[in-house]
Amino acid sequence: MLIHPDFNPIALQLGPIKVHWYGIMYLLGFITFWLLAQKRLKDQPYARQGWTSRDIEDLLFAGVLGVILGGRTGYVLFYQPDYYFTHPAQIVAVWDGGMSFHGGLLGVMVAAYWFARTRRYSWLQIMDFVAPLIPPGLAFGRIGNFINGELWGRAAPAWWPGAMIYPESGSMVPRFPSELYEMFLEGVVLFTVLWWLSRKERPRGFIAGCFALGYGLARFTAEFFRQPDAFLGYLWFHLTMGQLLSIPLILLGSLMIWWSLRRRDRLAAQGQSAA
Question: Is 54 part of any known ligand binding site?
Fold first, then answer.
């Protein structure tokens, strides 16, 4: 039986300055975003449309703010509103943990809207561009969760391959290493699919829709292995908060894919009629 390693969440300490592994994972996610964005800029039609490396840098800066502000706000509103509204000073204490992907995604969408307005680009074009660049950051984030020994899985059968004991959970019950499952589904699989799809020019909104649908399905599935937050437990229909928040993403992604393909066919029909 595997036992979760006793990692030190602090990677480096210089006097009073502590560098946490989780922070390093965020940094690696942003660096990977920038590197992949540069490659995507060269391989896709964005450069022909006037995009530059400066645009990528400004978009990354806006995205970082969106992830941090949106992720924290989402966690406060979606997960522990009662606690934070009675302890408002703790809202800014992001170093104590507490970030929501769904909130971070909303933050990125707002940042993309601001970027689109200031550059006179289409908002959907921005979302199509960034969609394949997000999964690696999600993978790094889940590695950070695993190092911290948090967000462990539900109790697993003793025969389950890779079942792991998390002493941090307060029990010696074998559990699913759900952080690693999420890293694989939300990070590796989703990135592979989106990067492959984005190698060819697609209808506007299609890639963004595939991201929303793909992440929603990956998160909804992984949550069956993840232990619900103790302060929330199971909610409607015995689903977790992560699953409930993923349902709108699945519906939105499906709608966006349908709309983009329908719009492509309509534009193609109009072009034939004009000819």
Answer: no
